Amino acid sequence: MRIVGNIPNPIMKITIFQMETRFSVKFEIGSMEQVYRIRKSDRFQSAQQVKEFIDPEFQQKVLEEFKNMGAIMKSALSN
According to the model, what pLDDT value does residue 50 have? Predict the structure, then answer.
């Protein structure tokens, strides 16, 4: 596994990793992270194609999921 790119974002750190048969895109905010695995295919052969797929709309949905994750953690810690 090696890092093949980053996607600029003012809130999240977004890193693209390449493995033999897939790409992994890791999103990080503080102590939370989400990883999306994308199999190499005709559509995804390069880090650039993955970057184009992870568009602002996709990033916004990931950010919303981080908000949900934060709420779950806060609720669990308050019990």
Answer: 97
* Prediction pTM value: 0.92
Q: Are 31 and 43 in contact (CB under 8 A)?
A: no
Distance CA 33, CA 46 (A): 23
Backbone angles phi, psi at 36, to 5 degrees: -115, 125
Is residue 32 classed as helix, strand or coil in its secondary structure?
Answer: strand
pLDDT band at 32 (very low <50, low <70, confident <90, very high): very high
Residues making up the chain, counted from first to last: 79
Angstrom distances, CA of residue 7 to CA of 32, 65, 77: 17, 18, 32
DSSP annotation of 4 reads: E
Helix (DSSP H) and strand (DSSP E) numbers for the chain: 2, 4
**CA distance linking residue 25 with residue 7, whole number of Å:** 10
